[in-house]
């Protein structure tokens, strides 16, 4: 039975959002809605314009017998700025202070609405690049990695400090925590990554960069390629940070335990996003 346009648009939009970076042939939609190919093409044009206007990403159509339509997640600079300013305000709440100068983040990274946006922001950086997996370290980085992987349409893998028997054979590396100068161990299942995979590393928090450097070293053991590194928040570090090329959504400039003041600024994410969008337009 032929499906009317309003219903097609709703279902097609939902399908593309659920299948990011997956090439879908036009005959698939023709059969799904019992509609002419010309009608499907017009529908996709409407969705493409709406996505671009709302900053939701790009719907790309490829001509030819092997062509189709592919959705690349994205975000507009105004939407990203508004959200990051909201997160900065919440992160600067003095009630987050824990003993030792640590900050409580679980409520932010446990909120599904926030996680969706965080995942889309990070995925927008890499949506046009080849990515085979998203990598993080247990435990707080897992929700972020899962959200990013969902928008990129790839699996996520978890490096652990203690191997689980259910992981099977593992590859391990020793790494130095830049903030504490302690040597720690990190392991990843041999079945997690294929040789030569292109991987994005994400994490919730970065200080000296030792943990992320450990994940980078693990990728080398798999002969995998690092696509990029993004963290939810970074904090000021007086020593030599082990990672230089990275993206941060937020930057914690200062934590004053005497006055319970937390100074938070936006990270370098917006600069990186503008650079990515500019390169796509050129």
Automatic annotation (TrEMBL):
Phosphoribosyltransferase domain boundaries: 107-261
Transferase keyword on record: no
Pfam families for this protein: Pribosyltran, PuR_N
CDD domains: PRTases_typeI (cd06223)
SUPFAM superfamilies attached to this UniProt entry: PRTase-like, Winged helix' DNA-binding domain
Keyword Hydrolase part of the UniProt annotation: no
Ranges of residues in domain Bacterial purine repressor N-terminal: 4-73
Protein name, entry field: Pur operon repressor
Organism the protein comes from: Lapidilactobacillus mulanensis
């Amino acid at each position: 039975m032929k499906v009317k346009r309003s219903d097609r648009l709703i279902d097609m939009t939902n399908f593309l959002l659920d299948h990011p970076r997956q090439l879908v042939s036009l005959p698939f939609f023709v059969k799904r809605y019992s509609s002419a190919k010309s009608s499907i093409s017009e529908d996709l044009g409407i969705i493409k314009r709406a996505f671009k206007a709302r900053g939701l990403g790009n719907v790309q159509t490829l001509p030819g017998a092997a062509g189709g339509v592919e959705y690349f997640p994205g975000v507009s600079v105004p939407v990203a700025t508004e959200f990051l300013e909201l997160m900065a305000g919440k992160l600067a709440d003095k009630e987050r202070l824990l003993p030792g100068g640590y900050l409580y983040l679980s409520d932010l990274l446990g909120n599904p609405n926030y996680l969706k946006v965080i995942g889309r922001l990070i995925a927008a950086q890499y949506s046009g690049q080849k990515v085979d997996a998203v990598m993080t370290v247990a435990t707080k980085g897992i929700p972020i990695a899962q959200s990013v992987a969902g928008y990129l349409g790839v699996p996520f893998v978890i490096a652990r400090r203690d191997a689980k028997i259910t992981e099977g054979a593992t590859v391990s590396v020793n790494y130095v925590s830049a903030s504490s100068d302690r040597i720690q161990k990190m392991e990843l299942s041999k079945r997690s990554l294929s040789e030569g995979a292109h991987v994005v590393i994400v994490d919730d928090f970065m200080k000296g960069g030792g943990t992320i450097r450990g994940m980078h070293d693990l990728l080398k053991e798999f002969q995998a390629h690092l696509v990029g590194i993004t963290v939810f928040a970074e904090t000021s570090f007086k020593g030599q940070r082990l990672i230089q090329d990275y993206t941060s959504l937020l930057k914690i400039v200062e934590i004053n335990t005497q006055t319970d003041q937390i100074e938070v600024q936006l990270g370098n994410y917006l600069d990186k996003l503008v650079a990515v969008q500019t390169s796509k337009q050129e």
